[in-house]
Amino acid sequence: MLLAVFTFAACSSKKEGTKEQTQNIRIGEVTHSLFYAPLYVGIEKGFFKDEGLNIDLQTTAGGDKTMTALLSGGIDIALVGSETSIYVHQQGAKDPIINFAQLTQTDGTFLVSRKKLDSFNWNDVKGVTFLGQRKGGMPQMVGEYVLKKNGIDPHKDTNLIQNIEFANIASAFASGTGEFVQLFEPTASIFEKEGKGFIVASFGNESGTVPYTTFMAKESFLKKDKDAAEKFTRALYKAQQWVDTHSPEEIADTVSPLFKDTSKDITVKVIERYKKQHSYATNPLLDAEEWKQLQTIMKEAGELQKEVPHEALVNTKIAESVIKK
Predict the structure, then answer these.
(1) What are phi and psi of 214, to 5 degrees?
(2) What family does this belong to (predicted)?
């Protein structure tokens, strides 16, 4: 009986003096990065708590693992690249994965060179080993898109490695694999500080606006827990607006409890870099133009079987409702 009471208390709690309950929402993030600063601001500033939500945040390293967790019911909401919802759709899912709130709107990776270069030209990656991201994932597809945009065929002009697990890419480069690597922050800036590599280009600046990382859930969840999805999106929007109107230093101070192993100077530098290239979406709405750009990138990478209409896998009603209020 004691166990049953404890289990219930862990899932739902009442605010003192009210009948309002706190709902537990399990979030799976594809990686833990300052690229997702607005989410962490929402948690640390209590915006989700104000909406009666308790965020159970889990890092489900890699898009495939994150989507597996969502499909199996291990998490309620996934924070992952929008391309994963299209992959599930292509497999004929009966309960489709729906994008309902956008978090980032550019690529979040940077090209890191093992050697310090006085000047960088994209042709510098020709004929050398390029340590890319997982095949079919958003980072790798954007990476290929940018290389092709600059006249480079990644499969012919470079020795492209893309079979290393997402979580092991940085350590593989640190161990000596590759002359160039595609990395997220704060790893890229940490490597630069330690002299292990040097940032020479931003894939985010080169790729344009795209729904890079979004919150998504099963269609059945959004129907059953529509109120929770709206509360979640409202809290997220507050966090996005807060990030947009505050300095990198203020944001760094807010999210630092979730990045205890990252120094203050690195945290500020990373956030400043992402803000400068407008990586953080200022509202949760994923529009049709961004969806079109996503599929252009997927088509270039040979990963899109057939174009998927924006309205088929994107719910804009929740975001539109939150923004209007």
Answers:
(1) -135, 160
(2) Belongs to the bacterial solute-binding protein SsuA/TauA family.
